[in-house]
């Protein structure tokens, strides 16, 4: 008999999903969203690891990658076309958003599953929709005070980002009229 | 921007598979078993307007398990520079054809598909694989109640990760 030296546990936790109906076209909103975020450069990250850079150098380099709200796009997947295949092309982008410096403030191994967190932009009848699971609600399940603090910090950064997008000068004529 | 914000509570189920294998053994087995999507190729097929080629590519990437890796991030390497002795690697995996079934029900499916899981190990401790249970994750969407895809993902994905976590590699006849 094959030895199955593993065991499985499960844990349920309440999460809050935030859905923002923007009223803007997908293309305009995606452009505005990306402008508010920095981009994590994986090549630079790999170089820092390769040369075993000091934390001071890592902090300065990674901090420079963050956008005005202290967040960056760790990865962007243009999911729409991929999952449409032969069907009608969908407009849908998935972003992994975070900041490795914030994530490095905790030694809790479980946090890696939840940060960076996912942000999706897709299209519905009234235009682009932004959706994500509120980081503090996901991280609260791990019952760790440091993670609770980080979760609230990430919530605030996302709220600041959304507020900036709401106030931004995306050409209002590009906004679709609400029905 | 005339925003309208909705807050929807739902319940997630996080599954943790613990393994006596090392982090390196588990991640190398994952990366041997699941092929990685090359999004430059995907973009080329899209630009060429050739859905047949794209569908064939998705099928090839899914061999032999039916699933491929959409994205992976070695989070631990940066954390170790901060002096935190952990190994952590984050993955998004799935199947673009199977995901179509979810996206037909709701455009918001992208927050759960591809499915995320994370392999991690603290120095001297067991390796763990954490994964969101797809049925729990998608249960919040009333539009998904009729879809068999989340249950299919539970049934097909979890045994693959459990087998990787097991002490000895087992067969992967999952199709």
What features would you describe in this structure?
The complex is a heterodimer of chains A (179) and B (175). Chain A is of the alpha+beta class. Chain A contains 7 helices and 6 strands, in the order βαβααβαβαββαα. In chain A, 44% of the residues are buried. Chain A has a 6-stranded mixed beta sheet with strand order 1-6-5-4-3-2. Chain A has helices spanning 26-35, 42-50, 55-63, 79-84, 100-103, 135-140, 145-167; strands at 6-21, 38-39, 72-78, 92-98, 117-124, 127-133. Chain B contains 7 helices and 5 strands; from the N terminus they run E-H-H-H-E-H-E-H-E-E-H-H. The model of chain B is unreliable at 171-175 (pLDDT under 50). By secondary structure, chain B is an alpha+beta fold. Chain B is globular, with a radius of gyration of 18 Å. The chains are: A alpha+beta (179), B alpha+beta (175). The interface between A and B is large, with 79 and 76 residues.
Describe the structure concisely for a colleague.
The complex is a heterodimer of chains A (179) and B (175). Chain A is an alpha+beta fold and 179 residues long.
SSE topology:
The complex is a heterodimer of chains A (179) and B (175).
Chain A (H helix, E strand, L loop, with lengths): L5 E16 L4 H10 L2 E2 L2 H9 L4 H9 L8 E7 H6 L7 E7 L1 H4 L13 E8 L2 E7 L1 H6 L4 H23 L12
Parallel strand pairs in A: 2-3
Antiparallel strand pairs in A: 1-6, 3-4, 4-5, 5-6
Chain B lengths: L3 E16 L3 H11 L5 H10 L2 H11 L6 E7 L1 H6 L4 E9 L1 H10 L9 E8 L4 E6 L1 H5 L10 H17 L10
Measure the end-to-end span of chain B: 47 Å
SS content category of chain B: alpha+beta
Shape of chain B: globular
The strand line-up of the biggest sheet of chain B is 1-5-4-3-2
Largest beta-sheet details of chain B: 5 strands, antiparallel
- Number of separate strands of chain B: 5
Give the class of chain A from helix and strand content and strand pairing.
Answer: alpha+beta
Strand content of chain B: 25-35%
Rounded radius of gyration of chain A (Å): 19 Å
Helix content of chain B: 40-55%
Shape type of chain A: globular
Task: Give me the number of helical elements of chain A.
Answer: 7
What portion of residues of chain A belong to β-strands? 25-35%
């Amino acid at each position: 008999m094959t030895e199955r030296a593993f065991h499985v546990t499960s844990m349920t936790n309440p999460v809050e999903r935030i859905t923002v109906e923007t009223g803007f076209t997908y293309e305009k909103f995606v452009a505005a969203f990306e402008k508010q975020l920095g981009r994590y450069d994986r090549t630079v990250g790999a170089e820092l690891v390769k040369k075993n850079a000091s934390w001071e150098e890592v902090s300065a380099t990674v901090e420079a990658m963050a956008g005005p709200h202290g967040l960056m796009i760790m990865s962007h997947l243009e999911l729409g076309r991929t999952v449409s295949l032969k069907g009608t092309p969908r407009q849908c982008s998935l972003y992994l958003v975070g900041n490795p410096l914030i994530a490095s403030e905790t030694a809790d191994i479980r946090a890696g599953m939840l940060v960076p967190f996912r942000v999706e932009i897709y299209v519905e009848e009234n235009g682009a929709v932004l959706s994500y699971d509120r980081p503090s609600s996901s991280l609260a399940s791990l019952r760790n005070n440091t993670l609770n603090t980080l979760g609230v910090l990430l919530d605030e950064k996302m709220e600041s980002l959304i507020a900036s997008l709401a106030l931004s000068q995306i050409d209002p004529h590009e906004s679709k009229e609400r029905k | 921007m005339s925003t309208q914000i909705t807050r929807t509570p739902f319940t997630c189920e996080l599954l943790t598979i613990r393994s006596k294998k090392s982090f390196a053994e588990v991640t190398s087995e994952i990366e041997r078993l699941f092929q990685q999507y090359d999004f430059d190729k995907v973009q080329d097929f899209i630009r060429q307007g050739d859905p047949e080629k794209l569908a064939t590519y998705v099928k090839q990437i899914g061999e032999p398990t039916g699933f491929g890796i959409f994205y992976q991030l070695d989070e631990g390497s940066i954390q170790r520079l901060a002096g935190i002795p952990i190994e952590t690697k984050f993955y998004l995996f799935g199947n673009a054809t199977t995901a179509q079934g979810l996206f037909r029900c709701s455009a918001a499916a992208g927050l759960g598909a591809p499915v995320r899981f994370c392999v991690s190990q603290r120095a001297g401790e067991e390796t763990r694989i954490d994964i969101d249970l797809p049925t729990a994750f998608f249960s919040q969407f009333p539009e998904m109640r009729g879809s068999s895809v989340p249950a299919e993902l539970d049934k097909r994905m979890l045994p693959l990760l459990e087998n990787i976590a097991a002490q000895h590699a087992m067969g992967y006849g999952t199709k």
